[in-house]
Amino acid sequence: MNIIFYHPSFNFNADKWIQGIQTRLPEAKVRHWVHGDDAPADYALVWLPPYEMLANRQNIKGIFALGAGVDAVLKQESENPGMLPAGVPLIRLEDTGMARQMQEYAVNAVLYYFRRMDEYKQFQEQRIWKPVAPYNREKFVIGVLGAGVLGRGVIEKLREFDFKVRCWSRTPKQIDNVESFYGEGQLSDFLSECKVLINLLPNTPETQGILNFSLFSQLKSGSYVINMARGAQLVERDLLTAIDEGCVAGATLDVFVKEPLSNLHPFWTHPRINITPHIAAITIPEEAMDVICENIRRIENGESPTGLVDMARGY
């Protein structure tokens, strides 16, 4: 079994990954892919691969994207058709420790707003001693956009705090402990009672720009927005307008249209916006390698891998 590996970043510890995969699959030969390498390969582990790495490998059994999102790889394919050989499975990392990190990030942001810490922070800056009543838990409805592995994990953890949680996804899902589930054509109904909106949607052409003024205006007045998915899904100017007009009381953002954020970007100094540098969930190498190797064994045994990407839907 031959496995090729490629990641463009010099800061990415590729040697650790190659050694880790080799240890888990001792029968495999794992190598760095370099330009001109057209030797046989059964599997590829990639992030932003060059066109020539995969285009002519019709006999490869699986391509593993080294991340939960595959939008970057699919964008490459749309710009350079044929980069991904037709019919070859594309497989993403579904969890590998990211669900737990997303739970931590979401709970931290939700409790920050529920306990009105954003207001106390402003009081502190103005040296105002002013207790305020906490929000009514029954009316503090949390809406989660996205019902994938990460979305379901966040919902599960928020329910442990007895919050009312509703979910929206384009395709129907069965999710325990959700107050209400909304599907395609029901977005307005979903938004109407949300005091907090958490975005965990996959990045597809349909979801780009979905967090816009029209959406914000359908939330409860003075709501909160938490974006943990992709920066391209947020229309940044619309968020600033929504805050100015009172539709949105505050936002916590981990992802942005352009990263790193420009030094001149208004988000840096906005009193109602909290930002973090795309750290809501990072890939944990040991857990990711376990999942990848288990999926390779599944394919070798004629079974379906987990995390198989639907190319038509883009996730």
UniProtKB/TrEMBL annotation:
Domain (D-isomer specific 2-hydroxyacid dehydrogenase NAD-binding): residue spans on this chain: 109-280
Keywords: NAD, Oxidoreductase, Pyruvate
Keyword Oxidoreductase: yes
Tagged with keyword Oxidoreductase: yes
SUPFAM superfamilies: NAD(P)-binding Rossmann-fold domains (SSF51735)
InterPro entries according to UniProt: D-isomer_DH_NAD-bd, NAD(P)-bd_dom_sf
EC number: 1.1.1.79, 1.1.1.81
Pfam families xrefs: 2-Hacid_dh_C (PF02826)
Bilayer-crossing regions: none
Molecular function, one GO term: hydroxypyruvate reductase [NAD(P)H] activity
Protein name: Bifunctional glyoxylate/hydroxypyruvate reductase A
Organism: Xenorhabdus khoisanae
Gene name for this UniProt entry: ghrA
